[in-house]
Amino acid sequence: MKDFIKVLLRFVPPYKRYLVMAVVFNILSALLNIFSFATLIPMLQILFKVDSGKVATRLMEWNEGSLRDVLANNADYYTQFYANAWGASTLLLVIGLALAFMTFLKTGAYFLSSASITPIRTGVVRDIRNQLFQKITSLSLGFFSEERKGDIIARMSGDVQEIDSSIMSSIDMLFKNPILILIYFVTLIIISWQLTLFTLIFVPIFGWFMGFVGRKLKQHSIKAQSLWSDTMSQVEETLGGLRVIKAFCAEGLMNGRFNKVNSQYRDDIMRVNIRQQLAHPMSEFLGTVMIVVVLWFGGTLVLSQNPVISGPTFIYYLVILYSILNPLKEFSRASYNIPKGLASMERVDKILQAEVAICEPEKPIHIKTFEHEIEFRNVSFAYADEKTEHLHWVLKDINLVIPKGKTVALVGQSGSGKSTLLDLIPRYYDVQRGEVLIDGINVKNLGVHDLRQLIGNVNQEAILFNDSFRNNISFGVKANDSDIQEAAKIANAHEFIMQSERGYDTNIGDRGGKLSGGQRQRVSIARAILKNPPILILDEATSALDTESERLVQDALYKLMKTRTTIAVAHRLSTIKNSDEICVLHEGRIVERGTHDELMEIAGYYKKLHDMQEI
Length: 615
Description:
CATH architecture of the largest domain: Up-down Bundle
Largest sheet: 6 strands, mixed
Structural class: alpha/beta
Radius of gyration: 37 Å
CATH superfamily of the largest domain: ABC transporter type 1, transmembrane domain
Strand order of the largest sheet: 6-7-8-3-9-10
Number of strands: 10
CATH topology of the largest domain: ABC transporter transmembrane region fold
Number of helices: 23
Distance between the termini: 71 Å
CATH class of the largest domain: Mainly Alpha
Shape: elongated
Helix content: 55-70%
Strand content: 5-15%
Number of domains: 2
Protein backbone atom coordinates (compact mmCIF):
# COMPACT_ATOMS: atom_id res chain seq x y z
CA MET A 1 0.00 0.00 0.00
CA LYS A 2 2.95 2.32 0.67
CA ASP A 3 4.09 2.06 -2.96
CA PHE A 4 0.52 2.64 -4.12
CA ILE A 5 0.29 5.85 -2.09
CA LYS A 6 3.63 7.04 -3.51
CA VAL A 7 2.34 6.57 -7.06
CA LEU A 8 -0.80 8.57 -6.26
CA LEU A 9 1.19 11.37 -4.60
CA ARG A 10 3.24 11.67 -7.80
CA PHE A 11 0.35 11.95 -10.23
CA VAL A 12 -2.90 12.89 -8.43
CA PRO A 13 -2.14 16.41 -6.99
CA PRO A 14 -3.14 18.28 -10.23
CA TYR A 15 -6.65 16.86 -9.79
CA LYS A 16 -7.19 17.89 -6.14
CA ARG A 17 -10.57 19.55 -6.72
CA TYR A 18 -12.01 16.36 -8.20
CA LEU A 19 -10.62 14.50 -5.21
CA VAL A 20 -12.37 16.83 -2.74
CA MET A 21 -15.64 16.42 -4.64
CA ALA A 22 -15.31 12.62 -4.54
CA VAL A 23 -14.68 12.61 -0.76
CA VAL A 24 -17.68 14.91 -0.06
CA PHE A 25 -20.07 12.83 -2.20
CA ASN A 26 -18.79 9.58 -0.65
CA ILE A 27 -19.45 10.88 2.87
CA LEU A 28 -22.93 12.00 1.80
CA SER A 29 -23.61 8.62 0.17
CA ALA A 30 -22.53 6.70 3.31
CA LEU A 31 -24.67 8.83 5.65
CA LEU A 32 -27.72 8.53 3.42
CA ASN A 33 -27.16 4.76 3.26
CA ILE A 34 -27.20 4.50 7.06
CA PHE A 35 -30.38 6.56 7.42
CA SER A 36 -32.15 4.72 4.61
CA PHE A 37 -31.42 1.32 6.18
CA ALA A 38 -32.56 2.67 9.58
CA THR A 39 -36.12 2.67 8.22
CA LEU A 40 -36.00 -1.14 8.48
CA ILE A 41 -36.41 -0.96 12.27
CA PRO A 42 -39.87 0.72 12.32
CA MET A 43 -40.95 -1.37 9.30
CA LEU A 44 -40.11 -4.61 11.13
CA GLN A 45 -41.78 -3.37 14.31
CA ILE A 46 -44.98 -2.59 12.42
CA LEU A 47 -44.97 -5.78 10.29
CA PHE A 48 -44.24 -8.20 13.13
CA LYS A 49 -45.88 -6.13 15.91
CA VAL A 50 -42.79 -6.10 18.07
CA ASP A 51 -41.21 -3.35 20.10
CA SER A 52 -37.77 -2.64 21.41
CA GLY A 53 -38.46 -4.45 24.70
CA LYS A 54 -40.23 -1.57 26.40
CA VAL A 55 -42.87 0.88 25.26
CA ALA A 56 -41.60 4.42 24.67
CA THR A 57 -44.12 6.66 26.46
CA ARG A 58 -42.26 9.96 26.02
CA LEU A 59 -39.50 11.68 24.09
CA MET A 60 -36.10 11.53 25.77
CA GLU A 61 -33.79 14.53 25.99
CA TRP A 62 -30.25 14.18 24.57
CA ASN A 63 -28.71 14.30 28.05
CA GLU A 64 -30.92 11.55 29.49
CA GLY A 65 -28.91 8.60 28.17
CA SER A 66 -26.50 7.32 25.57
CA LEU A 67 -26.88 8.39 21.96
CA ARG A 68 -28.08 4.91 20.99
CA ASP A 69 -30.73 4.82 23.76
CA VAL A 70 -32.03 8.29 22.91
CA LEU A 71 -32.28 7.52 19.18
CA ALA A 72 -33.91 4.12 19.77
CA ASN A 73 -36.42 5.51 22.31
CA ASN A 74 -37.48 8.50 20.23
CA ALA A 75 -37.75 6.39 17.04
CA ASP A 76 -40.01 3.94 18.94
CA TYR A 77 -42.08 6.81 20.31
CA TYR A 78 -42.75 8.36 16.89
CA THR A 79 -43.44 4.95 15.33
CA GLN A 80 -46.09 4.20 17.97
CA PHE A 81 -47.51 7.71 17.78
CA TYR A 82 -47.98 7.80 14.01
CA ALA A 83 -49.11 4.17 13.86
CA ASN A 84 -51.95 5.06 16.22
CA ALA A 85 -52.71 8.36 14.43
CA TRP A 86 -52.50 7.23 10.77
CA GLY A 87 -52.81 3.49 10.92
CA ALA A 88 -50.06 0.88 10.38
CA SER A 89 -50.50 0.51 6.60
CA THR A 90 -50.39 4.29 6.00
CA LEU A 91 -47.26 4.61 8.14
CA LEU A 92 -45.62 1.77 6.17
CA LEU A 93 -46.32 3.68 2.93
CA VAL A 94 -44.84 6.90 4.35
CA ILE A 95 -41.73 5.10 5.60
CA GLY A 96 -41.40 3.34 2.23
CA LEU A 97 -41.60 6.65 0.37
CA ALA A 98 -38.98 8.11 2.72
CA LEU A 99 -36.77 5.07 2.00
CA ALA A 100 -37.21 5.54 -1.77
CA PHE A 101 -36.37 9.26 -1.54
CA MET A 102 -33.22 8.67 0.55
CA THR A 103 -32.17 5.86 -1.81
CA PHE A 104 -32.56 8.29 -4.72
CA LEU A 105 -30.31 10.80 -2.95
CA LYS A 106 -27.84 8.06 -1.96
CA THR A 107 -27.50 6.66 -5.50
CA GLY A 108 -27.19 10.21 -6.86
CA ALA A 109 -24.35 10.94 -4.44
CA TYR A 110 -22.74 7.60 -5.32
CA PHE A 111 -22.90 8.45 -9.03
CA LEU A 112 -21.41 11.91 -8.47
CA SER A 113 -18.57 10.45 -6.39
CA SER A 114 -17.69 7.96 -9.16
CA ALA A 115 -18.05 10.66 -11.82
CA SER A 116 -15.61 12.84 -9.85
CA ILE A 117 -13.02 10.03 -9.82
CA THR A 118 -13.18 9.50 -13.61
CA PRO A 119 -11.33 12.75 -14.56
CA ILE A 120 -8.58 11.79 -12.09
CA ARG A 121 -8.21 8.28 -13.47
CA THR A 122 -8.18 9.25 -17.15
CA GLY A 123 -6.05 12.34 -16.50
CA VAL A 124 -3.35 10.44 -14.60
CA VAL A 125 -3.05 7.81 -17.34
CA ARG A 126 -2.79 10.58 -19.96
CA ASP A 127 -0.11 12.32 -17.88
CA ILE A 128 1.93 9.11 -17.53
CA ARG A 129 1.82 8.56 -21.30
CA ASN A 130 2.80 12.20 -21.93
CA GLN A 131 5.67 12.01 -19.44
CA LEU A 132 6.86 8.75 -20.99
CA PHE A 133 6.82 10.18 -24.50
CA GLN A 134 8.52 13.41 -23.41
CA LYS A 135 11.19 11.43 -21.54
CA ILE A 136 11.78 9.21 -24.59
CA THR A 137 12.36 12.27 -26.77
CA SER A 138 14.67 13.84 -24.17
CA LEU A 139 16.88 10.79 -23.55
CA SER A 140 20.19 10.59 -25.37
CA LEU A 141 20.75 8.17 -28.25
CA GLY A 142 23.01 6.08 -26.03
CA PHE A 143 20.01 4.98 -23.94
CA PHE A 144 18.28 3.44 -26.95
CA SER A 145 21.38 1.56 -28.08
CA GLU A 146 20.99 -0.50 -24.89
CA GLU A 147 17.20 -0.93 -25.10
CA ARG A 148 15.01 -2.82 -27.57
CA LYS A 149 12.34 -0.78 -29.33
CA GLY A 150 9.79 -3.53 -28.73
CA ASP A 151 10.40 -3.34 -24.99
CA ILE A 152 9.92 0.45 -24.95
CA ILE A 153 6.70 0.10 -26.99
CA ALA A 154 5.49 -2.58 -24.55
CA ARG A 155 6.10 -0.28 -21.58
CA MET A 156 4.24 2.58 -23.22
CA SER A 157 1.28 0.44 -24.28
CA GLY A 158 0.85 -2.71 -22.19
CA ASP A 159 2.37 -1.43 -18.95
CA VAL A 160 0.53 1.90 -18.99
CA GLN A 161 -2.71 0.04 -19.76
CA GLU A 162 -2.04 -2.25 -16.79
CA ILE A 163 -1.49 0.81 -14.57
CA ASP A 164 -4.86 2.11 -15.75
CA SER A 165 -6.75 -1.13 -15.16
CA SER A 166 -5.00 -1.95 -11.86
CA ILE A 167 -3.84 1.14 -9.99
CA MET A 168 -6.13 3.81 -11.42
CA SER A 169 -9.21 1.59 -11.18
CA SER A 170 -8.41 1.28 -7.46
CA ILE A 171 -8.50 5.05 -6.84
CA ASP A 172 -12.23 4.80 -6.22
CA MET A 173 -11.48 2.13 -3.65
CA LEU A 174 -8.95 4.30 -1.84
CA PHE A 175 -11.15 7.39 -1.57
CA LYS A 176 -14.54 5.73 -1.17
CA ASN A 177 -14.15 2.53 0.82
CA PRO A 178 -12.23 3.95 3.83
CA ILE A 179 -14.97 6.55 4.24
CA LEU A 180 -17.71 3.92 4.01
CA ILE A 181 -15.89 1.55 6.37
CA LEU A 182 -15.27 4.29 8.94
CA ILE A 183 -18.87 5.58 8.94
CA TYR A 184 -20.37 2.07 8.97
CA PHE A 185 -18.00 1.00 11.74
CA VAL A 186 -18.96 3.95 13.94
CA THR A 187 -22.63 3.08 13.31
CA LEU A 188 -22.01 -0.56 14.34
CA ILE A 189 -20.37 0.60 17.60
CA ILE A 190 -23.33 2.88 18.34
CA ILE A 191 -25.79 0.03 17.72
CA SER A 192 -23.88 -2.59 19.78
CA TRP A 193 -20.31 -2.30 20.93
CA GLN A 194 -20.35 -5.90 22.21
CA LEU A 195 -21.22 -7.31 18.77
CA THR A 196 -18.72 -5.03 17.06
CA LEU A 197 -15.87 -6.04 19.38
CA PHE A 198 -16.65 -9.69 18.67
CA THR A 199 -16.68 -9.02 14.90
CA LEU A 200 -13.26 -7.35 14.96
CA ILE A 201 -11.62 -10.67 15.79
CA PHE A 202 -12.07 -11.81 12.17
CA VAL A 203 -10.89 -8.68 10.34
CA PRO A 204 -7.09 -9.20 10.85
CA ILE A 205 -7.41 -12.81 9.61
CA PHE A 206 -9.27 -11.52 6.55
CA GLY A 207 -6.56 -8.92 5.82
CA TRP A 208 -3.65 -11.36 6.30
CA PHE A 209 -5.00 -13.75 3.66
CA MET A 210 -5.45 -10.92 1.17
CA GLY A 211 -1.95 -9.51 1.72
CA PHE A 212 -0.22 -12.90 1.44
CA VAL A 213 -1.75 -13.74 -1.93
CA GLY A 214 -1.23 -10.15 -3.19
CA ARG A 215 2.53 -10.27 -2.56
CA LYS A 216 2.83 -13.50 -4.55
CA LEU A 217 0.81 -11.92 -7.35
CA LYS A 218 3.23 -9.00 -7.77
CA GLN A 219 6.18 -11.35 -8.26
CA HIS A 220 4.40 -13.21 -11.07
CA SER A 221 3.19 -9.91 -12.60
CA ILE A 222 6.73 -8.52 -12.97
CA LYS A 223 7.83 -11.68 -14.79
CA ALA A 224 4.71 -11.68 -17.01
CA GLN A 225 5.20 -8.05 -18.05
CA SER A 226 8.85 -8.74 -18.87
CA LEU A 227 7.78 -11.61 -21.13
CA TRP A 228 5.21 -9.31 -22.77
CA SER A 229 8.09 -6.98 -23.68
CA ASP A 230 9.94 -9.93 -25.23
CA THR A 231 6.82 -10.74 -27.25
CA MET A 232 6.52 -7.16 -28.54
CA SER A 233 10.24 -7.13 -29.39
CA GLN A 234 9.80 -10.29 -31.45
CA VAL A 235 6.94 -8.65 -33.37
CA GLU A 236 8.93 -5.44 -33.97
CA GLU A 237 12.02 -7.33 -35.15
CA THR A 238 9.94 -9.54 -37.44
CA LEU A 239 8.17 -6.60 -39.07
CA GLY A 240 11.50 -4.87 -39.65
CA GLY A 241 13.18 -7.96 -41.07
CA LEU A 242 10.44 -9.63 -43.13
CA ARG A 243 12.45 -9.36 -46.34
CA VAL A 244 15.42 -11.22 -44.80
CA ILE A 245 13.17 -13.78 -43.09
CA LYS A 246 11.54 -14.68 -46.39
CA ALA A 247 14.83 -14.64 -48.29
CA PHE A 248 16.34 -17.21 -45.90
CA CYS A 249 13.10 -19.26 -45.63
CA ALA A 250 13.22 -18.67 -41.87
CA GLU A 251 9.47 -18.34 -41.28
CA GLY A 252 9.46 -21.56 -39.25
CA LEU A 253 12.39 -20.42 -37.12
CA MET A 254 10.75 -17.07 -36.33
CA ASN A 255 7.39 -18.74 -35.68
CA GLY A 256 9.07 -21.11 -33.23
CA ARG A 257 10.84 -18.26 -31.40
CA PHE A 258 7.62 -16.29 -31.13
CA ASN A 259 5.61 -19.32 -30.00
CA LYS A 260 8.16 -20.05 -27.25
CA VAL A 261 8.01 -16.51 -25.80
CA ASN A 262 4.26 -16.26 -26.31
CA SER A 263 3.66 -19.59 -24.53
CA GLN A 264 5.86 -18.54 -21.59
CA TYR A 265 3.87 -15.30 -21.35
CA ARG A 266 0.62 -17.28 -21.48
CA ASP A 267 1.74 -19.59 -18.66
CA ASP A 268 2.75 -16.70 -16.40
CA ILE A 269 -0.30 -14.55 -17.09
CA MET A 270 -2.49 -17.62 -16.53
CA ARG A 271 -1.01 -18.08 -13.05
CA VAL A 272 -1.51 -14.38 -12.35
CA ASN A 273 -5.16 -14.44 -13.47
CA ILE A 274 -5.98 -17.68 -11.62
CA ARG A 275 -4.53 -16.22 -8.43
CA GLN A 276 -6.46 -13.01 -9.06
CA GLN A 277 -9.70 -14.96 -9.39
CA LEU A 278 -9.23 -16.07 -5.77
CA ALA A 279 -10.12 -12.57 -4.58
CA HIS A 280 -13.90 -12.75 -4.92
CA PRO A 281 -14.48 -16.36 -3.75
CA MET A 282 -12.13 -15.97 -0.78
CA SER A 283 -13.66 -12.67 0.33
CA GLU A 284 -17.18 -14.07 -0.22
CA PHE A 285 -16.43 -17.13 1.87
CA LEU A 286 -14.76 -15.21 4.71
CA GLY A 287 -17.59 -12.67 4.72
CA THR A 288 -20.22 -15.40 4.94
CA VAL A 289 -18.34 -17.08 7.80
CA MET A 290 -18.27 -13.73 9.60
CA ILE A 291 -22.01 -13.18 9.09
CA VAL A 292 -22.82 -16.71 10.37
CA VAL A 293 -20.71 -16.30 13.50
CA VAL A 294 -22.11 -12.82 14.18
CA LEU A 295 -25.64 -14.14 13.59
CA TRP A 296 -25.06 -16.83 16.20
CA PHE A 297 -23.50 -14.49 18.76
CA GLY A 298 -26.05 -11.73 18.13
CA GLY A 299 -28.87 -14.26 18.40
CA THR A 300 -27.73 -15.15 21.91
CA LEU A 301 -27.86 -11.45 22.86
CA VAL A 302 -31.37 -11.05 21.42
CA LEU A 303 -32.78 -14.29 22.89
CA SER A 304 -31.32 -13.93 26.37
CA GLN A 305 -33.61 -13.19 29.34
CA ASN A 306 -32.35 -9.60 29.43
CA PRO A 307 -31.88 -8.72 25.72
CA VAL A 308 -28.93 -6.43 25.01
CA ILE A 309 -30.38 -5.58 21.59
CA SER A 310 -33.86 -5.90 20.09
CA GLY A 311 -34.68 -8.15 17.14
CA PRO A 312 -35.37 -5.35 14.59
CA THR A 313 -32.25 -3.49 15.69
CA PHE A 314 -30.21 -6.68 15.32
CA ILE A 315 -31.52 -7.07 11.75
CA TYR A 316 -30.47 -3.46 11.09
CA TYR A 317 -27.05 -4.30 12.55
CA LEU A 318 -26.69 -7.25 10.17
CA VAL A 319 -27.65 -5.07 7.19
CA ILE A 320 -24.99 -2.49 8.11
CA LEU A 321 -22.46 -5.29 8.74
CA TYR A 322 -23.19 -6.75 5.32
CA SER A 323 -22.81 -3.25 3.84
CA ILE A 324 -19.34 -2.94 5.37
CA LEU A 325 -18.35 -6.27 3.85
CA ASN A 326 -18.69 -4.93 0.29
CA PRO A 327 -16.03 -2.21 0.77
CA LEU A 328 -13.83 -4.81 2.44
CA LYS A 329 -14.27 -7.12 -0.57
CA GLU A 330 -13.29 -4.27 -2.89
CA PHE A 331 -10.19 -3.78 -0.75
CA SER A 332 -9.39 -7.46 -1.22
CA ARG A 333 -9.84 -7.21 -4.99
CA ALA A 334 -7.61 -4.13 -4.99
CA SER A 335 -4.98 -6.05 -3.03
CA TYR A 336 -4.79 -8.34 -6.06
CA ASN A 337 -5.07 -5.66 -8.73
CA ILE A 338 -2.66 -3.09 -7.29
CA PRO A 339 0.44 -5.38 -7.22
CA LYS A 340 0.01 -6.01 -10.96
CA GLY A 341 -0.10 -2.26 -11.57
CA LEU A 342 2.88 -1.63 -9.29
CA ALA A 343 4.88 -4.22 -11.25
CA SER A 344 4.09 -2.27 -14.43
CA MET A 345 4.89 1.03 -12.70
CA GLU A 346 8.38 -0.29 -11.85
CA ARG A 347 8.99 -1.00 -15.54
CA VAL A 348 7.64 2.41 -16.59
CA ASP A 349 9.84 4.11 -13.99
CA LYS A 350 12.93 2.60 -15.60
CA ILE A 351 12.26 5.05 -18.40
CA LEU A 352 10.78 7.93 -16.37
CA GLN A 353 13.68 7.87 -13.90
CA ALA A 354 16.42 7.15 -16.44
CA GLU A 355 19.23 9.68 -16.29
CA VAL A 356 19.30 12.17 -19.15
CA ALA A 357 22.92 12.08 -20.23
CA ILE A 358 22.73 15.15 -22.50
CA CYS A 359 21.48 17.98 -20.27
CA GLU A 360 20.82 21.64 -20.95
CA PRO A 361 23.51 23.67 -19.13
CA GLU A 362 22.36 25.70 -16.12
CA LYS A 363 23.26 28.96 -17.85
CA PRO A 364 23.32 28.14 -21.58
CA ILE A 365 25.07 30.38 -24.06
CA HIS A 366 22.67 31.23 -26.88
CA ILE A 367 24.05 31.60 -30.39
CA LYS A 368 22.14 32.11 -33.64
CA THR A 369 24.96 32.03 -36.21
CA PHE A 370 28.14 30.13 -36.99
CA GLU A 371 31.02 32.50 -37.71
CA HIS A 372 34.47 30.89 -37.52
CA GLU A 373 35.29 27.22 -37.02
CA ILE A 374 34.52 23.84 -35.46
CA GLU A 375 37.34 22.41 -33.37
CA PHE A 376 38.00 18.98 -31.84
CA ARG A 377 40.58 19.55 -29.12
CA ASN A 378 42.21 16.43 -27.62
CA VAL A 379 38.92 14.55 -27.96
CA SER A 380 38.59 10.98 -26.67
CA PHE A 381 35.33 9.06 -26.50
CA ALA A 382 34.35 5.62 -25.20
CA TYR A 383 31.20 3.51 -25.01
CA ALA A 384 30.55 1.88 -21.63
CA ASP A 385 29.85 -1.86 -21.51
CA GLU A 386 26.94 -2.29 -19.05
CA LYS A 387 27.82 -5.91 -18.22
CA THR A 388 31.55 -5.46 -17.55
CA GLU A 389 31.46 -1.68 -16.83
CA HIS A 390 34.61 -1.34 -18.95
CA LEU A 391 35.09 1.55 -21.37
CA HIS A 392 35.61 0.75 -25.04
CA TRP A 393 37.57 3.67 -26.49
CA VAL A 394 36.36 4.54 -29.99
CA LEU A 395 38.16 7.89 -30.44
CA LYS A 396 41.61 8.73 -29.06
CA ASP A 397 43.20 12.19 -28.88
CA ILE A 398 41.48 13.70 -31.92
CA ASN A 399 42.63 17.19 -32.89
CA LEU A 400 40.87 18.72 -35.87
CA VAL A 401 39.88 22.24 -36.98
CA ILE A 402 37.14 22.75 -39.59
CA PRO A 403 37.04 26.39 -40.79
CA LYS A 404 33.77 27.97 -41.87
CA GLY A 405 32.86 27.28 -45.49
CA LYS A 406 35.27 24.33 -45.86
CA THR A 407 34.45 20.70 -46.60
CA VAL A 408 36.22 18.07 -44.52
CA ALA A 409 35.79 14.37 -45.30
CA LEU A 410 36.32 11.47 -42.90
CA VAL A 411 37.35 8.11 -44.36
CA GLY A 412 38.54 4.85 -42.91
CA GLN A 413 37.56 1.26 -42.25
CA SER A 414 34.27 0.37 -40.57
CA GLY A 415 34.53 0.80 -36.81
CA SER A 416 37.30 3.41 -36.99
CA GLY A 417 35.06 6.04 -35.28
CA LYS A 418 33.92 8.21 -38.20
CA SER A 419 30.19 8.31 -37.39
CA THR A 420 30.90 8.69 -33.67
CA LEU A 421 33.02 11.76 -34.43
CA LEU A 422 30.09 13.30 -36.32
CA ASP A 423 27.68 12.55 -33.43
CA LEU A 424 29.80 14.60 -31.03
CA ILE A 425 29.14 17.87 -32.88
CA PRO A 426 25.35 18.07 -32.24
CA ARG A 427 25.88 16.49 -28.78
CA TYR A 428 24.16 13.18 -29.42
CA TYR A 429 26.95 11.98 -27.14
CA ASP A 430 29.34 13.85 -24.84
CA VAL A 431 33.09 13.30 -24.83
CA GLN A 432 34.84 11.77 -21.83
CA ARG A 433 38.03 13.75 -22.48
CA GLY A 434 38.81 16.91 -24.39
CA GLU A 435 36.43 19.47 -25.91
CA VAL A 436 34.30 20.02 -28.99
CA LEU A 437 34.19 23.75 -29.72
CA ILE A 438 32.08 25.89 -32.03
CA ASP A 439 33.41 29.41 -32.49
CA GLY A 440 35.60 28.78 -29.43
CA ILE A 441 32.66 27.80 -27.20
CA ASN A 442 32.42 24.29 -25.73
CA VAL A 443 29.26 22.66 -27.12
CA LYS A 444 28.40 21.57 -23.53
CA ASN A 445 27.92 25.25 -22.67
CA LEU A 446 25.61 25.98 -25.60
CA GLY A 447 21.84 25.68 -25.51
CA VAL A 448 21.10 22.24 -26.99
CA HIS A 449 18.43 23.54 -29.38
CA ASP A 450 20.57 26.53 -30.38
CA LEU A 451 23.41 24.14 -31.25
CA ARG A 452 21.26 21.75 -33.27
CA GLN A 453 19.52 24.55 -35.14
CA LEU A 454 22.92 25.32 -36.71
CA ILE A 455 23.29 21.76 -38.05
CA GLY A 456 21.64 19.85 -40.88
CA ASN A 457 21.93 16.07 -41.20
CA VAL A 458 21.75 13.75 -44.20
CA ASN A 459 22.33 10.15 -43.11
CA GLN A 460 22.91 6.87 -44.90
CA GLU A 461 19.38 5.80 -44.00
CA ALA A 462 16.90 8.52 -44.89
CA ILE A 463 14.66 8.75 -41.80
CA LEU A 464 11.22 9.78 -43.00
CA PHE A 465 7.79 9.75 -41.36
CA ASN A 466 4.47 8.22 -42.37
CA ASP A 467 3.17 11.55 -43.66
CA SER A 468 2.97 13.61 -46.83
CA PHE A 469 5.92 14.88 -48.91
CA ARG A 470 5.04 18.40 -47.75
CA ASN A 471 5.17 17.60 -44.03
CA ASN A 472 8.34 15.53 -44.35
CA ILE A 473 10.23 18.29 -46.16
CA SER A 474 9.01 21.00 -43.77
CA PHE A 475 9.56 18.82 -40.68
CA GLY A 476 10.51 21.07 -37.75
CA VAL A 477 10.51 24.19 -39.96
CA LYS A 478 7.78 26.75 -40.60
CA ALA A 479 7.65 27.25 -44.37
CA ASN A 480 5.20 28.14 -47.14
CA ASP A 481 4.50 26.05 -50.23
CA SER A 482 6.87 28.00 -52.51
CA ASP A 483 9.80 27.47 -50.10
CA ILE A 484 9.03 23.74 -49.88
CA GLN A 485 8.87 23.40 -53.66
CA GLU A 486 12.09 25.37 -54.12
CA ALA A 487 13.89 23.08 -51.68
CA ALA A 488 12.54 20.03 -53.52
CA LYS A 489 13.75 21.42 -56.87
CA ILE A 490 17.26 22.00 -55.55
CA ALA A 491 17.25 18.41 -54.22
CA ASN A 492 16.10 17.01 -57.60
CA ALA A 493 12.92 15.77 -55.89
CA HIS A 494 10.25 18.07 -57.36
CA GLU A 495 9.76 16.05 -60.56
CA PHE A 496 8.95 12.67 -58.99
CA ILE A 497 6.87 14.34 -56.26
CA MET A 498 4.65 16.00 -58.89
CA GLN A 499 4.27 12.66 -60.69
CA SER A 500 2.79 11.08 -57.55
CA GLU A 501 -0.97 10.75 -57.08
CA ARG A 502 -1.58 13.88 -54.99
CA GLY A 503 1.67 15.77 -55.48
CA TYR A 504 3.09 17.21 -52.29
CA ASP A 505 0.10 15.90 -50.31
CA THR A 506 0.85 12.25 -51.19
CA ASN A 507 1.53 10.02 -48.19
CA ILE A 508 4.92 8.31 -48.53
CA GLY A 509 4.13 5.32 -46.27
CA ASP A 510 5.86 3.98 -43.18
CA ARG A 511 9.48 5.23 -43.20
CA GLY A 512 8.98 6.29 -46.83
CA GLY A 513 8.29 2.70 -47.87
CA LYS A 514 6.50 3.80 -51.09
CA LEU A 515 9.68 5.46 -52.39
CA SER A 516 12.94 4.13 -53.80
CA GLY A 517 16.19 4.60 -51.87
CA GLY A 518 17.27 7.51 -54.08
CA GLN A 519 13.89 9.22 -53.76
CA ARG A 520 13.95 8.89 -49.97
CA GLN A 521 17.43 10.37 -49.85
CA ARG A 522 16.47 13.34 -52.04
CA VAL A 523 13.46 14.08 -49.81
CA SER A 524 15.85 13.97 -46.86
CA ILE A 525 18.18 16.42 -48.64
CA ALA A 526 15.24 18.72 -49.44
CA ARG A 527 14.45 18.76 -45.72
CA ALA A 528 18.03 19.79 -44.92
CA ILE A 529 17.95 22.47 -47.66
CA LEU A 530 14.75 23.97 -46.24
CA LYS A 531 16.27 24.12 -42.77
CA ASN A 532 19.16 26.09 -44.35
CA PRO A 533 21.77 25.29 -41.68
CA PRO A 534 25.29 26.79 -41.77
CA ILE A 535 26.82 23.40 -40.78
CA LEU A 536 26.09 20.26 -42.77
CA ILE A 537 26.77 16.68 -41.63
CA LEU A 538 26.73 13.96 -44.30
CA ASP A 539 27.00 10.39 -43.02
CA GLU A 540 27.34 7.92 -45.92
CA ALA A 541 24.63 9.85 -47.78
CA THR A 542 25.10 7.99 -51.10
CA SER A 543 26.61 4.62 -50.14
CA ALA A 544 23.39 2.60 -50.49
CA LEU A 545 22.32 3.99 -53.88
CA ASP A 546 22.60 2.78 -57.45
CA THR A 547 24.70 4.74 -59.95
CA GLU A 548 21.87 6.83 -61.41
CA SER A 549 20.37 7.64 -58.01
CA GLU A 550 23.83 8.44 -56.67
CA ARG A 551 24.40 10.93 -59.48
CA LEU A 552 21.10 12.71 -58.76
CA VAL A 553 21.68 12.70 -55.01
CA GLN A 554 25.29 13.81 -55.39
CA ASP A 555 24.18 16.69 -57.59
CA ALA A 556 21.64 17.68 -54.92
CA LEU A 557 24.35 17.46 -52.25
CA TYR A 558 26.72 19.72 -54.19
CA LYS A 559 23.97 22.34 -54.35
CA LEU A 560 23.36 21.90 -50.62
CA MET A 561 27.07 22.11 -49.72
CA LYS A 562 27.63 25.46 -51.43
CA THR A 563 28.48 28.19 -48.89
CA ARG A 564 28.14 25.70 -46.03
CA THR A 565 30.64 24.12 -43.67
CA THR A 566 30.46 20.40 -44.40
CA ILE A 567 31.72 17.34 -42.55
CA ALA A 568 31.20 14.19 -44.60
CA VAL A 569 31.75 10.49 -43.99
CA ALA A 570 32.12 8.45 -47.17
CA HIS A 571 33.14 4.94 -48.15
CA ARG A 572 33.07 5.79 -51.86
CA LEU A 573 36.17 7.92 -52.11
CA SER A 574 35.12 9.26 -55.51
CA THR A 575 32.43 11.35 -53.80
CA ILE A 576 34.89 13.27 -51.58
CA LYS A 577 37.85 13.86 -53.93
CA ASN A 578 37.14 17.58 -54.09
CA SER A 579 37.04 18.06 -50.29
CA ASP A 580 39.25 20.79 -48.82
CA GLU A 581 40.72 18.23 -46.41
CA ILE A 582 40.43 14.48 -46.03
CA CYS A 583 41.10 12.87 -42.65
CA VAL A 584 41.86 9.15 -42.50
CA LEU A 585 40.83 7.45 -39.24
CA HIS A 586 42.28 4.15 -38.10
CA GLU A 587 41.46 2.54 -34.74
CA GLY A 588 40.10 5.81 -33.37
CA ARG A 589 43.00 8.06 -34.40
CA ILE A 590 43.60 10.43 -37.31
CA VAL A 591 46.54 8.80 -39.04
CA GLU A 592 46.62 10.85 -42.27
CA ARG A 593 45.22 14.19 -43.45
CA GLY A 594 45.42 16.35 -46.55
CA THR A 595 43.82 16.78 -49.97
CA HIS A 596 43.17 13.84 -52.28
CA ASP A 597 46.35 14.45 -54.27
CA GLU A 598 48.50 14.90 -51.16
CA LEU A 599 47.25 11.67 -49.63
CA MET A 600 47.80 9.74 -52.85
CA GLU A 601 51.42 10.91 -52.84
CA ILE A 602 51.92 9.73 -49.26
CA ALA A 603 50.92 6.21 -50.37
CA GLY A 604 49.55 5.25 -46.96
CA TYR A 605 46.15 4.12 -45.69
CA TYR A 606 44.20 6.40 -48.02
CA LYS A 607 46.00 5.17 -51.17
CA LYS A 608 45.41 1.57 -50.06
CA LEU A 609 41.65 2.25 -49.67
CA HIS A 610 41.59 4.09 -53.00
CA ASP A 611 43.37 1.30 -54.84
CA MET A 612 41.02 -1.33 -53.37
CA GLN A 613 38.02 0.57 -54.78
CA GLU A 614 39.68 0.99 -58.17
CA ILE A 615 40.08 -2.76 -58.61
